[in-house]
Amino acid sequence: MENKKLLEIYDILLKHFGAQEWWPARTRFEVVIGAILTQNTNWKNVEKVIEKLKERNLLEPEGLRKISETELCEIIRPAGYYNQKAKKLHKFLEFLFREYGGSMDGIINADRDTLRAQLLDIWGIGEETADAIVLYADDKTSFVIDAYTRRVFTRMGTLDGIMTYGEIKDFFEKNLPDDLELYKEFHALIDELAKNYCTAKPRCDACPVRGLCARKID
DNA sequence: GCCCAGGTGGGTA
DNA sequence: TACCCACATGGG
Fold this sequence. Notes:
Elements: H1 3-17, H2 28-37, H3 43-55, H4 61-66, H5 69-76, H6 82-100, H7 104-108, H8 112-121, H9 127-137, H10 147-155, H11 165-174, H12 180-197
This protein binds a DNA duplex through residues 22, 34-35, 38-46, 48, 77-85, 88, 123-129, 132, 144, 146-149, 187-188, 191, 194-195, 199-200.
C-alpha cells in the first residue's frame, strides 16, 4: 500500500466519524495517567478512575506522589490490574521527579527520541504507552500502534500479522506526512473504526472503508 | 456465564 | 526469538 491509499483511508475516516480530538484529557499529566490506566482495559473503566482522582486533587504529580501505593490501589481499582498499575504510576512519577523536576513542562523541551527511550526504560511503559505519551502528552510525532491498528490493517491486507511493533510503526511513519495533528487524529480514527465496525463480529457491510478492505464480507 | 477491553513484564526453551 | 502466562475490573 502506498502513501496515497493510507491518506485516502484517513480522509474517509475523518469525513465519516468527524475529528476525534484525542487525547481526552485536560493536562499533559492526565494523558500519562490515562495511557497507563487504559493498558488492556476499556476506556470507560479508566474514566471512572480519572474522575475519582480529579475529585481528590490527585491529577497532578506532587499530590499523586504523596499517597501510598496501597491507597492508590484502592482508588484505581475499577481500571483493573490495580496492583501493577499503581506500581507503574509510581515508577513514572519517580522518573518525572528524577529527570524533569516533577513537571511535565520539562518534558516539552526534551528531544523526542531521547524521551521515548527514557520512557521505555521505565518499568510498566512499553512501546504503545511510550508512543501515546510522546504523541499526546509531549506533542511530538510518534505513531501509536495498538491492537486495533494491527487488526484493522491486517484485515485490510496491509499488514501480514507477523510484523513487529517497530515495523508497523515505521510503515505508517514512512507513508504519512510528518504532521502532528494527522498522527493524533489518525490513531483515534482507527480506534473508532475498529470499535464500531472491526470487532470480533465485524460489520463489514456498513464499514466506511469496505471498498479498500481485503477482508471478505460475510 | 462468557468474552473482551486503547498492554506489559517475566519465565521458559 | 517465540511462545505462554499473570495481571483484574466492568460492560455487553
